[in-house]
Amino acid sequence: MIHCGKKHICAVVACILIFASMLICSWKDPQLQNSITRKIFSQATTASPAGQHCRGKPAKNVITPLKDNRTFIIAPYFDDRESKVTRVIGIVHHEDVKQLYCWFCCQPDGKIYVSKAKVDVHSDRFGFPYGAADIDCLEPENCDPTHVSVHQSPHGNIDQLPRFEIKNRKAETFSVDFTVCISAMFGNYNNVLQFIQSIEMYKILGVQKVVIYKNNCSHLMEKVLKFYMEEGTVEIISWPINSHLKVSSEWHFMQDGTHIGYYGQITALNDCIYRNMQRSKFVVLNDADEIILPLKHPDWKTMMSSLQEQNPGTGIFLFENHIFPETVSTHTFNISSWNTVPGVNILQHVHREPDRKDVFNPRKMILDPRKVIQTSVHSVLRAYGNSVNVPMDVALIYHCRVPLQGNLPRESLIRDTTLWRYNSSLIMNVNKVLYQTIL
């Protein structure tokens, strides 16, 4: 029993106990949890601006700056996993952007409803002043918004605001099993042969779609991308981030005046997850020079079926990266017709670097997008499901690139010819693409 000398102390204690009991109950009761979430958001809503109806300028680009030039909108997505929220993927200055508002276009009456946003800058900024952000707004009651605008104020003229279609409003059946997200292609990318080999390996392993956030590439690479787009394998998302921000090709801040790291890679990865949330069973986050190679299974579908059976409730599977240095090669599979194509022939690089003592090997992911809220590059930041590190004897990432341990003699490397299990199909498929695009 609690004894209080003063009434206001009792009142404070009582409020704390009531709030704590609500939180405890909310973990057990999803409906109550949603109710609490809605009450928190409801404090941030305002009425409809007088006399204003749905208008605005349709946004035409993937990256849309707001007038403050501190906020850049990528796309809004409907997210009803907790409450009916519009989650806007964006890029913001982590100090300068404190408040934003969602201007919803409600249906069927066409009226505007303004809701105060929760601006959630992702924790992995790596020191850069700009970072990926979720701009979350609770959708108003009795409103089925199809479009939303984002503004610094609850007041203004709707005609002056860019208008974005809210994606993922309608449930869909999965059109593909695996989608690979590659972000970002930049630096006049011209590693043509390795790119084609990676895409063909993805297809052999069970991928139906590859989404590429493209900043720029070579003219020859453009021809290859055009072929894969027409084939239906590749989807290109134009990513001119350097038109808006000073980008770094490094992942961490170098005190060099740049605004955001690695061409906004983290923002692109988060957008790719939400973009494919309803159309792909799994989303794979890796780079174009990385291939998740299964060792116990012939393809990703059988591998993931086994991993999910062994790890019920898991939504994120992390695979360990291993470097196969492009400086160490074998004469096997020296295919003469490939020698004129710029880029690395991965079939000739089957020696991997040994693990370094006390050095963490980064991981890339195959994940269930519906269980992810926010992701970084090598792990998820917020998710509903568990994460599991996949053992190396099940699968590893074949990463053919410049060495990290360049001083090691060849005999210190580990010969690993797992990739050669696919050599026959890979050579045939690559030849077909080269014949139709370059040769």
UniProtKB/TrEMBL annotation:
One of its GO terms (molecular function) is glycosyltransferase activity. Coiled coil: none annotated. The keyword Glycosyltransferase applies. It is found in: Membrane. Keywords: Glycosyltransferase, Membrane, Transferase, Transmembrane, Transmembrane helix. It is an enzyme of class 2 (transferase). Its EC number is 2.4.1.-. GO terms for cellular component: cytoplasm; membrane. It is a single-pass membrane protein. PANTHER family: GLYCOSYLTRANSFERASE FAMILY 92 PROTEIN (PTHR21461). Belongs to the glycosyltransferase 92 family. This is Glycosyltransferase family 92 protein. The lineage of its organism: Eukaryota, Metazoa, Chordata, Craniata, Vertebrata.
